[in-house]
Amino acid sequence: MLLRGIIRSCRPHQWTKNVLVFAAPLAAGVIRDRAVLIDVTTAFIAFCMAASGTYLLNDAQDVESDRQHPTKRNRPIAAGLVPLPVAYALAVALILGSITIGFLVERNLGFTLLAYLVLTTAYSYRLKRMPVYDIVAVAAGFVLRAVAGAAATNVPISEWFFIVTSFGALLMVVGKREGERKLLADEAGSVRSTLDAYSGTYLLYLRAVASGLVLIGYCLWAFESAKKPGVSPDAEIWFQLSIVPFVIAILRYGLLLDRGEGAEPERLVLKDRPLLLAGACWAVIYAYGVYAFKVPLG
After folding, report:
1. Looking at residue 156, what is its pLDDT?
2. Residues 72/78, Cβ–Cβ less than 8 Å
3. Which of 21, 78, 115, 233 shows the greatest Cβ crowding within 10 Å of its Cβ?
4. pLDDT at 293
5. CATH 1.10.357.140, applies to 1-157
6. Residues in contact with 126: Cβ distance below 8 Å, sequence separation at least 6, in sequence order
7. What does the alpha-carbon distance between residue 21 and residue 256 come to, in Å, rounded to a whole number?
8. What is d(CA 20, CA 11) in angstroms, rounded to the nearest whole number?
9. Distance CA 79, CA 93 (A)
10. Percent of the chain having pLDDT more than 90?
């Protein structure tokens, strides 16, 4: 029972977020290199360890508020299946292990993991109770995952990649807050204090800003990639075509958020078939442009 509770507390379903570490090497067309693949996979494992450690730490800190939440009350720590001392000890072990692995792979990866851990610790102890800062902090965690993949493999990050990743993360986090407000209704403020500070119109404003910037950023990135020196004319059309499924995916995600379904984005993106279809089409088109013509995008 304890082991099962520990595994649940590590939230393996949340590890899908860490797939972002593969983004930069994939976009740069270098993932085919065996050494790169090993390094980025190790970075993925290190981030999973770090994330699980922070989840344990966060759940231990939030044990009282989680017991008032309609679904979080079933988390192992809140339900009493995992004792607090065990949760804290395991969190420290996972966090220290992830940092060690990070520095063994690449110094910059180690520093990126440290930055992620400082951010998530600050979030657990303070930022999650500060409106706006809580949204930015969670979004920054996604950005650091993407940066980690580049740091582990020494892949340069383009400004457009950074912009799309940043505002894509912001869109996801804003949608999560919208979903939580609708799910919790009158109890929202007692479960997450910052939710009382956000009106529906303010979150809608943030969603509009994030959606607009991620769409514009991706379009400019795609057109710039197609015009880079050394890019085959045959590859140009694929980068431009990738805009279509990308836009459809963002619009579909916006519709789902408007329905209040964004409280658990990691589950939402895996269960909605139209969204999965648009994402798969984008991945195939973009990957074909990069790998079929051996285009280095950086």
Report:
1. 85
2. yes
3. 21
4. 66
5. yes
6. none
7. 25
8. 17
9. 22
10. 47
**Domain boundary assignment for the chain:** 1-157, 158-298
Whole-angstrom CA distances from 65 to 72, 79, 192, 246 are: 9, 12, 8, 38
Tokens of 119: 């951010």
The region of weakest confidence among 3-17, 115-129, 140-154 is 3-17
CB atoms within 10 A of CB 115: 15
What is the 3-state composition of the chain as percent helix, strand, coil, each rounded to the nearest 5?
80, 0, 20
Residue 209 corresponds to which tokens in the numbers above? 């800003």
The rounded distance, in Å, linking the Cα atoms of 105 and 21 is: 14
The lowest-confidence range among 79-93, 140-154, 179-193 is 179-193
| Torsion, CA 276, CA 172, CA 200, CA 272, rounded to 10 | 10
Q: pLDDT band at residue 230, thresholds of 50, 70 and 90?
A: low
Q: Do the Cβ atoms of 111 and 152 come closer than 8 Å?
A: no
> What value, to the nearest 5°, has the Cα angle with vertex 221 and ends 247 and 42?
95
Give 94: exposed, middle or buried? Use CB within 10 Å, 0-12, 13-18, 19+: buried
The one-character DSSP state at 116 is H
Which CB contacts under 8 angstroms, 24+ apart, belong to 114-119?
A: 115/144, 116/47, 116/50, 116/141, 116/144, 116/145, 116/148, 117/50, 117/53, 117/54, 119/144
Select the more confidently predicted residue: 79 or 11: 11
Which of helix, strand or coil describes residue 205?
A: helix
Residue 254: closest CA among 207, 215, 216, 217: 207
